User: Fold these one by one.
Assistant:
Number 1:
Amino acid sequence: MNMEIWDKVRQPPRDALKTITGGRLRGMTDINPQWRYEVLTEIFGPCGVGWKYEVEKLWLEPGSDEQITAFAKVNFYYRTENIEAAGFVKQWSDPIPGIGGSLFIAKEQSGLRTSDEAYKMAVTDALSVALKMLGVAADIYAGKFDGSKYKNGDNPQTGKDTPRPTENTITNKPVTHGDQATEKQVAALYKIAAKNDLTNKELDQLANWYKTGKRVSKKEASEMIKDFKGILDRYLDYRQEVGS
């Protein structure tokens, strides 16, 4: 009974997933928020009747390089009466809190950019955080499912073993210039990394996270040289997000 809701919402359908191709979460899986609302409605009933949320607080906080982040704190509730045969008293659940954020003023190559959807995105992010506590998309967050196959152990729905993927998002291959990034660019990157107290291996990992192809391109190397600290900060945020 304790896992009833969790098991119903742990695995999103493939068409609700998309691989993030840019920014600090590059390589991670993005989940369509509309799927979350759909599955909540299937289990609890319409929004406002079977489930609801309230925005408790909205605020801004300054960050590095003149960037400003919008934050939101929400509380999610669901009607316990809609859980079949659970035997709960008919009432709203205790609040399930979540905090999320999105850049309000972001630093880009062309300069600072203001987003008029920062609070909306922060609320969506906060709601997704709260719903993790119910197990919504749990297999994605746990790294067990990539949208097409399970990575370790059994598929909870079929009970069968599934193969491990043959490729990793982040590899430990070294920075390579070859016919792309020049030797001068690579040397400059290692020099900048040393000034920022990064080992060669740590630079290699950063470069492999940032690159889009098999090798670091001249354009990507140029971007890293120009905004090394900003890219490094986004990479560290990403590592913290995935818990590695």
Note: The chain has two domains: 4-141, 183-242.
Number 2:
Amino acid sequence: MIQEKEWGKLKDSPNYIDLYQFILDADFSEILKMIKDGYGYDDDYYIDILNDYKIPINFKLKVRFTKSEVEKSIVLNFDSYKITIYENKNTRKMSNQSLNPKSYYNYKVEHISNDYDTIKKRVFEAILKDASSKNSIDVKEIKPNYDDKDAFQSAFELILNLVDSKLENDKKWQKLTDKDKKDLFFKSILLHMQINTAIYSILSKYFDNSFHFDSTREIPNYNYKLKNGQYGRKKYYSLLNNIPNESLISKEISNNSIGEFANKYKKVMRFLKENNLGDYIYTEKTETEGKLKLRHNNTTIDLADTSSGLLQIFPILAKIAFWKTTDLKDDKAKFSIEEPELHLHPELQSKLIGFLLGEDGEEKDVNLIITTHSEHIIRKLQVMFAKGYISDDEVIINYFKNEDGKTTVKKMELEDDGFFKEPWPNGFFDASYNLAKELLIARDN
């Protein structure tokens, strides 16, 4: 134990003693006193000690696709603990002003075997709770950022507060050895810094910026119950509160009325009208109920009664039009779409892809992952590539083939003229050619 006279000399002359060795040798109570007396969190010798406790965080992303969601969780392994972090959807709020809100997370810490682990679990949970209530910091690597003095200070303040307010009188904490207390103290600071300077920016990237459309689109209800004049957040792809009413549509969806999304929504309506799918889609409300309506050729019908082709593409176009990235400005939203060609005739399939990929010259705010069996969609990509609308940096075409229970992936590269560098595998483009050939043979016979 460092004697009080040595502590006094240390306070008067920091160079009198090896500070790094002092902290290693000191009792935990002396370390706390040292910090509170002015040798605080911005000093380099604490960084040296954290290096002794450095524990990498290994993590894996778990993904489950539902009809209209991508459910994700992050599993972290830290100091023999498994920490599962997942989105708490009940606390997410969505409005016209904030379409991609700050996320909040639930977490589960697993591994308890003794009093030390019980205390450690409580501390780790407090760190996660603290981190989940803050905006993420955009750091690309999963490692503590020792240059971030704010994170360093935040970590010390949180752990000190936990010790003073929650642990000091806890019988399990009092039973811990001095070594265990110091071990937990510095490991907790390390975890806090890693969580705050890296993990939550990664969570925001993975959790906030993705949406999934499975191959079967949801059919809208005829009526929706309203609460305080608002639709339920999860109803119909979370779109309902963003679709304007007819009076706004009649004013050409004024930018002053519904903000920066007006122009994008007008383009969606223009696409529907140009393809004879309808003039516009709007929401109609009473005090307690809301409906989705389609106006087409001076006739109004419920959206639920419209064509399957319209119901196939409208939620995709509207969701992309209303999407706004707020937390991570440099990361585009990721939309995965299964078989967008279903219920669409060939011409509309190709027009849909042209619209989604910016054939109109507008830069898109999203990344698309599309699965398809449509040769018309692939041909449209070839044409757009040949005309310079898309490039190798923007589009990757992969062919998936299953043989003997194993799936292989082959990247299909394009020449500058839009033709493939290698022949497309059999059973796709050649199918229509072979049928035409059979038809000609049958006619001649």
Note: The chain has a mean pLDDT of 76.
